[in-house]
Write a structure and sequence with these properties.
- The chain is of the alpha+beta class.
- It folds into 2 domains: 55-234, Distorted Sandwich (Acetylcholine Binding Protein, Chain: A), CATH 2.70.170; 238-409, Up-down Bundle (Methane Monooxygenase Hydroxylase, Chain G, domain 1), CATH 1.20.58.390.
- It is 37% helix and 24% strand.
- It has 8 helices and 13 strands.
- It has helices at 34-38, 63-73, 237-254, 265-288, 299-332, 339-355, 362-375, 383-409; strands at 5-6, 12-16, 49-54, 75-87, 99-101, 114-116, 119-124, 132-136, 141-153, 165-174, 182-186, 204-218, 221-234.
- Helix 3 packs antiparallel against helix 4 and helix 5 runs antiparallel to helix 8.
- The longest helix is centred in the C-terminal third of the chain and has 34 residues, at 299-332.
- It is rod-shaped, with a radius of gyration of 37 Å.
- The relative contact order is 0.10.
Length: 410
Amino acid sequence: KDYSLPIPLTSFVLFAGKFGSARASTTALRVPAFKNRTWGVTGYSCPTAVSIYFCKTECNTGLLCMIILFFLFQDYTATIFLRQRWTDERLCFDGNKSLSLDGRLVEMLWVPDTFIVDSKRSFLHDITVENRLIRIYPNGTVLYALRITTTVACSMDLTKYPMDKQTCTLQLESWGYNINDVMFYWTRGNDSVRGLDTLQLAQYTVEDHFTSVSEAVYETGHYPKLVFHFELKRNILYFILETYVPSILLVVLSWVSFWISQSSVPARICIGVTTVLTMTTLMMGARTSLPNANCFIKAIDVYLGICFSFIFGALLEYAVAHFCTLHQLSSKEVPKIDSNRSSKTSTDRKRERSKYSGCSSPMSVMKRLFCVFDCFHVKNPYHIDNYARFSFPLSFIIINVLYWVYYLYF
């Protein structure tokens, strides 16, 4: 299958500096005499002017595959109809019609050494023959078209995934000719790229695209470079239905236990454990479609962590409520004792407490913890569920408002 995106691009122009080459005569050019006309003249020397064009296409084949590659491996695959146009005065001939030649004759012509920067894999289509076109006009203009598929790297920032925006580029440079030899520029600026306004992608929307001209600086010199920028915004509707809605429903399901009697231990434990395990599975499934980018926390990780905390908190709430209920029942069964004995017992407790005050044994630590819990003593443990019915939904709504406002507008 061809996992490629036909990117619609139109025209940029490259002008070459003058080279010492004799101008050929302007006699009529005939196809059988093409080899004699170009031998030793146009094969390796640069002409006086060169123009390069990209074609416009409306094809939508393979867009889904392109997004999958882009998303997992931080790159995108594009099929480009590359049309290069330059003027070679040595190929002028009399007439008013252009000549379309076989693509294999390209070896007899000078062609620009344009290459794609950050390309991982590229190939020229050759079914049924090599997809090349050579067309020569009477004024010496040469149109050289070819169809290539390339996979270009594109670094992504996933801190706001899936509310993120990605900006990718397609950079074109001259390999051997520096700025003293050739010069690149877009003939119509941003209008040189057409068709992206009607382009439809599976997970992305093309928000903006523009072109720019720059120079690439290397040790061997400065080289002309053209850059095509396009900004993609991820469609969040898919992730809302796939991840966010199930997470919210699991949180709401964990609140059902607040309306179940505390005496129904199996029912409440079953709901709590089931929701925790389901949420864990959902978190693992959401991470399988992400690249290995563990160096930063993504927006979806934050939300899943919030939902998991609320679900786990609902399970802990029942544990606390059940413990307080048992503690209250056990305290009611203790028989009443007289005041003298109680005062004596309290005096003995104070002596034991002063005796072991300097000891850091586990028992002393546990006693201090129980003293802290006594400060939060609940007279009626059944009111814990009433508090949870109100506090859990309210806090979840407030956190959701803060989450969506931050990641959508900041």
